[in-house]
Amino acid sequence: MLANSAAACAVVLDAPPWRLSGMVYAALLNHRAELDALGAAAYEPPYKAPPRAPVLEVKPRHTHAADGAVVRVPRGVPALCIGASLGIVIGAVARRVEAARALSHVAGYLLLGDVSVPVPNHYRPGARFKTRDGFCPLGARVVPAASVAQPDALHGRVQVDGRTVHGFDTTGRVRGVAQLVADVSEFMTLQPGDVLALGVSHGAPLVAAGSDVVLAIDGVGALSLRVEAEAP
Amino acid sequence: MKRARVAWGGAVHDAAPHERGLQLADGRVLAESDVVWLPPFHVGTVIALGLNYADHAKELAKELTTTAKDEPLVFFKGPGALVGHRGVTRRPQGVAFMHYECELAVVIGRTARHVARADALQHVAGYTVCNDYAVRDHLENWYRPNLRVKNRDASTALGPWLVDAADVPDPQALALRTLVNGRLVQQGHTRDMVNGVAALIEYLSGFMTLQCGDVILTGTPDGVVNVDVGDEVVCEIDGIGRLVNTIVADD
Lengths: 232, 251
Hints:
Chain A is mainly beta. Chain A is built from five helices and 15 strands. Chain A has a single domain, classed as Fumarylacetoacetase-like, C-terminal domain (Fumarylacetoacetate hydrolase, domain 2, Alpha-Beta Complex), CATH 3.90.850. Chain A is 12% helix and 34% strand. In chain A, strands 1, 2, 3, 6, 7, 9, 12 and 13 form an eight-stranded mixed sheet that branches. In chain A, a hairpin with a 2-residue loop joins strand 10 and strand 11. The model of chain A is unreliable at 1-9 (pLDDT under 50). Chain B folds into two domains: 1-38, SH3 type barrels (Roll); 41-249, Alpha-Beta Complex (Fumarylacetoacetate hydrolase, domain 2). In chain B, 8% of the residues lie in helices and 40% in strands. Chain B has helices spanning 54-59, 147-150, 197-205, and strands spanning 2-8, 11-18, 21-24, 29-30, 36-38, 46-50, 73-77, 82-83, 87-91, 98-99, 102-108, 124-132, 134-135, 156-164, 175-180, 183-189, 215-217, 232-237, 241-249. In chain B, strands 1, 2, 3, 4, 5, 6, 7, 8, 11, 12, 14 and 17 form a twelve-stranded mixed sheet that branches. A five-stranded mixed sheet of chain B has the order 9-19-18-15-16, with no helix packed on it. Chain B has a two-stranded antiparallel sheet with strand order 10-13. Chain B is globular and about 50 Å long. The interface between A and B is large, with 42 and 43 residues.
């Protein structure tokens, strides 16, 4: 039952490993601009100090969805925060890997959507805000690592109803791709086919029901989503 | 009925309890120490609860800004965190406070989405024992509890048996306890859960589809103390099982 969700099975892999494991781990607060925006609050209760270790969440199989999926806005929620994230696909077992060697454990890259109900709580937000059915759509293909020369300098965007409302790049991270793989592998083993997401960029837009969203990272892929209200 | 999954003789087997230990599905009888115990079912998503016993919440009250009255505190784990009965768990070098957490683990047997509390237990396949270790030195105040505390390799023991739900008429009527080197260090009762099993299934299925093999770790009562290299940690739940784990060095 660790087999892939239906969505993950639909992913076409151009590089080994030939299947995703179904496990997606995502970095949070990994964009310096997001921490900077918190300002002094990062030093005040309940946080008291900026994060030291990578801040991570698990995106379990129920959150996975495919390109073209419908994202549901829960009742009583005006809009969802929808961003894009670079998924690092692990190609070789990574445990206590040094940053200088970390990229040799990467098989390729995958575009991930990152959907959440916006809440101003980084202490212990409820799982119902971030880990809902379909809140982690996965791009349709993995691009081999050899085709992505600079994973820490990729450009991407979020389009809503055909208009670009958010542009970003993968620079300016607390931990870039290699350092993130290294620091996560310090305490847990990353397996071939696992996806480790670099994390969503600061300023991802709010999107209301009735919108069509396209997420893209140049050289990695694009993902279309339809945002609709949850059935009453 | 109780079922286990074990590795023996180069293969993985289903097994049942036997007076001399356990009996493989093919009839062979073995001692408990002869086999490698695996988590007793194919584990899907691992869903864990924090602060789900009123007494444990009180124990931690000084450092909390949330209370047990808030909605259930839910986090998730990956498959690398799991380890079976009689397994070993590493204590990271240089840490001051690593503790066990004896928990009732609820295994989903039927897809659940928007399930009402009254119907929730129909979706349970069975129960097992969990020891959900935490390394408290690494606890930070961002998206608690961070994976470095709770998702370390082989830090979440499950087993030994999956006990059929039909044999557990009331999951809120179970005494649980932890012994370290034979000394009783933690005692509790599932009636003291803030959110019981049925309430948790109702809550979770309100925003996520629970699938066959998903497991809900329902939180731990008070009485968590530090464990050291060499300690034998036994988590027991009456009628469910006795889960043994040994702490080893992280060399």
